[in-house]
Amino acid sequence: MITLERMSAEEMAALYESRMRSDFPPAELKPLKKLLALTKQGVYDNLRILLNGEEAGYALLLREDKMGYVLLDYFATFSEKRNLGIGKDALKALQAFYPKHCILLESEFPADAPKPEMAARRLGFYHRNGAKDTGVESWIFGVHFVNLQLGDAKDESKESVCAALESIYAYIVPNEQERKEQIRIGK
After folding, report:
1. 0.85 exceeded by the pTM?
2. What is the pLDDT of residues 71-114, one digit of tens each?
3. Calpha distance 15→8 (Å, rounded)
4. DSSP for 30-64?
């Protein structure tokens, strides 16, 4: 049985050093200092994924409560626990954990990814588990993403998804000029 449990900032920092640096390419990994600041701000949720009470992975999410969205920023099953259906069940658990939010997912655009086959597998995983294309793509610090959603949003228009992503990324890059230089969200 999959359950989710909140991690403290200290536990998340330890996870960052022990797992996240090897689970994600450097271009996709935000600085730990930024993640801790967002956690302290109260807009970033650090969740431990448990399989029958044993730690099996993690999900880090950035909330946009006003519009009813949450961005799945980092999601991984521990390498030694992969191919057990944990990811599929964790996505369902996340939907139950955020019943009033639509979960946004970013998946690298396969043709532009350093490992296209891995990016295509990840995108396929999300589709097989109920994610729908939003029709919105984004370019975040030079990485090209396809944006998907799990669950229903109050307004599923491309404009609403773009507005939610813009609001979410304003937390990550508060400086508007820098945000314009580093982040592009489009249809």
Report:
1. yes
2. 999 999 999 998 889 999 999 999 999 999 999 999 999 999 98
3. 11
4. --HHHHHHHHHHT-EEEEEEEETTEEEEEEEEEEE
Sign of CA dihedral 165, 35, 78, 3: negative
User: Inter-axis angle of helices 158-172 and 32-41, to 10 degrees?
Assistant: 110
Amino acid at residue number 151: G
Report the CATH number of the 2-186 domain. Answer: 3.40.630.30
pLDDT of residue 27: 76
- For the chain, domain boundaries: 2-186
For range 163-187, the mean pLDDT: 93
Report CA-CA distances (Å) from 15 to 76, 121, 145. Answer: 11, 24, 24
User: Residue 35 has which token pair?
Assistant: 């993640």
